Amino acid sequence: MESKFQQAIRTGLICGLVLAVIYLILSAASLWVNNTAAMKTYTDKAIEPFKDMWKDWPHVSQPVTYNPADMPQPPFEYYVGVMITLILWGIVFVGLLLTGAYAIKKMSEAKYRGSDIGAIGAVSGAAAFIPLLVAMFVISFVSIIWGSQATMVSTMLPPGFVAALPFFSAIGTCCCCLPVGIVVSMIVAAIGALGYALFTNRL
Length: 203
Known about the structure:
It contains six helices and no strands. It is mostly helical. The protein has one domain. Helix 1 (3-34) runs parallel beside helix 4 and helix 3 runs antiparallel to helix 4. The protein is elongated and about 65 Å long. 25% of the residues are buried.
């Protein structure tokens, strides 16, 4: 492997570790917000019509219909959680852009072709996603085992399926987050690399 790609991988892993730490901190804050008393009350009210769905398992009962007007307004914590999530993904997006730019900055001052710069950025983005994926696994398991989300998901599943939730979470993360995350990370980091190269006249 050419040294420029080895350096891109190293740069991506370092940036990815920083992003993973930020992801864990903000995700933990979001989990804490979603497990406040106000959010648990709101969640219990939201899943109330589904509580008896599986009482005659394997026959499925129709959820109790209710008037949407009976649903309480989301508490303030709900909007705080949404805000934290938006900030989190904004930081990840900007971080991946900067990862691609930093990978090019670490290269020699020689000019490169656009395809080379895009490839270096893409490689750094793919490497940066690896620590992020590990952080996603951790938060996914924690949110299923502990928290209001666990109560909501378990209510929607037949008896006996709750124990398999961590397994389903791992499969979902691998089948969805892994391919989509790598592709998106490569594209965003490549854009960051090309943008930095244009700005610094490295093309």
